[in-house]
C-alpha cells in the first residue's frame, strides 16, 4: 500500500465525499470529514518525508509508464504544498458546522461537507498530478465545489458572489484548457516533464507562445492576480465564514503553485524571464496589488471584505517572489504562501466566532469585543500583526526574504515598496484594534466555546511559532525553491 500513497491522498477525499450523503447526520458527517482530513495530513507528512530523504516520487497510474500514462509526481515543492492544504483542512473541517452555524440550510449539512471533501480532493489533485490535462480536470472539481460552498452563505448576495465567481472561474478554466490544447497540438504530450524536454526546440512557435499566454492568464484568474481579482472580495465576504477560511487559506496557494509549475518546470525560467521578460509585466502588477489591496482594505466596513482585500495584497507579495526567479525570492514567496495560509485561515475563523456571537461581521460590530471576547480578539490582533510583518511573527520572516531577494536582484526600490506597503497594513489592523479595545461594547456577549477558539489559535499560534522556529518553513521553502529552479544544494 505504501507505494500508492501519492494516489491515495487524492482518491481518499474523492471517495469519501459520497459517503457524506449516506451518513447525513451532521455530527457523524463532521466526524467522518475530520477523520478523512487528518488521514490526508498524515499521508502528506509521510510523502514529504520520503521526498526529503529519497528525492522526487514518480507514480504511474494503472501501471502505464509516463509519458504515455498519467503520472503523479511529487518533489519538494508540491509535497510541501500538500502539507499546507491538508493541515488547513484538518483544522477547519472539525469546526465547520459549529462556526458556520445557522448559515447552512437546515438538513443540508451533509452536502456542505461533501462539497468540502470534493474541494479538498481537487486541490490535492492539482498539487500532485504531473499531467497537464489532469490539472484542468482537478481545477474544475475544485471550482464547482467552491461555487457550491460560496452559495451557501446566509446572505442572498452569496448567490450573486457565487455566480460572479462561476463566470470568472469558467473564463479562467477555458483559458487553461485552450493553453493545454495548444501545447498538445505542438508536442503531442500532456506530461509536464515530457513537455519540459520537448518545448525548448519549439519555443519560437506562435502556437506555443499562445499556449503559454492562455495558461498564464487562466492561472492568474484563478489566483486573483491584480487586476483579475474581481471575483475574490465578494466570494470571501458572502461565503460562510468557515468556507472563507478554507478557500482563502488553500485555493489561491494551489493556483500559485500551478503558475510556478508552468513557468519553471514546463517552460523554464530562461525562456520566461530572459526571452519573454515576463517580470516586466508581473512586477508592476505585484506592486500595484500590494498597494491597491492594502489601501482598499483600509476603507472597508466589513471584516471579511477587509480580509479579502488584504488577501489581494498578500497575493502581490507572493507574485513578487515569483518574478524574482531567484532562490531567495522564491523562498520568500513560498514561505509567504505558507504563512498567509496560517494568517488568513486563522483570521477568518476568528471572524466566524464573532459572527457566531454577534450575528454580524461589520467592523463597527466589534466595538468593545476586546473585553467581551478576549481570546478571539487576541487571535485577531496577533493575526493582524503577522499581516503587517512585525518581528516575531511568521509574516516578518517571509517579507524579510522577499526584501533580501529584491536586494540581490538590485531592485532596491522594490525592497522599499515592500516596507511601505506593510505600513499601510498597520492602518487597517489598527482600525480593528481601536474598535475592539477602545470602543464601547454594543453586544452583551461572551467568548465562544473552546472548540471554536481552539482551531483559530492553532493557526494563529502557528504564526508565532514559525516566527521563531524557521527551520521548518524556510528550510522546506528553500528546498522547494531549489527543486523548481533545478539548483543542487
**C-alpha-based Rg, rounded:** 21 Å
Strand content: under 5%
Helix/sheet category: mainly alpha
Low-pLDDT stretches: none
Q: Would you count the extended β strands for me?
A: 2
Main β-sheet, in a few words?
2 strands, antiparallel
Rounded mean pLDDT is 86
The dominant shape is globular
Q: Portion of residues in helices?
A: over 70%
Strand ordering within the main sheet: 1-2
Work out the count of structural domains: 2
Q: How far do the termini sit from each other?
A: 31 Å
Order of helices and strands: HHEEHHHHHHHHHHHHHHHHHHH
**Helical region count?**
21
Describe this structure in words.
With 489 residues, the chain is mainly alpha-helical. It folds into 2 domains: 1-269, no CATH class; 277-489, no CATH class. Helices cover 77% and strands 2% of the residues. The protein is built from 21 helices and 2 strands. It has helices spanning 5-23, 26-54, 76-92, 96-100, 109-128, 132-151, 157-187, 192-198, 206-223, 231-238, 241-267, 269-275, 279-298, 303-324, 327-358, 369-372, 374-388, 394-408, 412-438, 450-468, 470-485, and strands spanning 57-60, 71-74. Helix 3 packs across helix 21 (470-485) and helix 14 runs parallel beside helix 18 (394-408). It is globular, with a radius of gyration of 21 Å.
Helix and strand topology:
Blueprint lengths: L4 H19 L2 H29 L2 E4 L10 E4 L1 H17 L3 H5 L8 H20 L3 H20 L5 H31 L4 H7 L7 H18 L7 H8 L2 H27 L1 H7 L3 H20 L4 H22 L2 H32 L10 H4 L1 H15 L5 H15 L3 H27 L11 H19 L1 H16 L4
Antiparallel strand pairs: 1-2
Helix pairs in contact: 1-2, 1-5, 2-3, 2-5, 3-5, 3-11, 3-15, 3-21, 5-6, 5-11, 6-7, 6-11, 7-9, 7-10, 8-11, 9-11, 10-11, 10-14, 11-12, 11-14, 11-15, 13-14, 13-19, 14-15, 14-18, 15-17, 15-18, 15-20, 15-21, 17-19, 17-20, 18-19, 18-20, 20-21
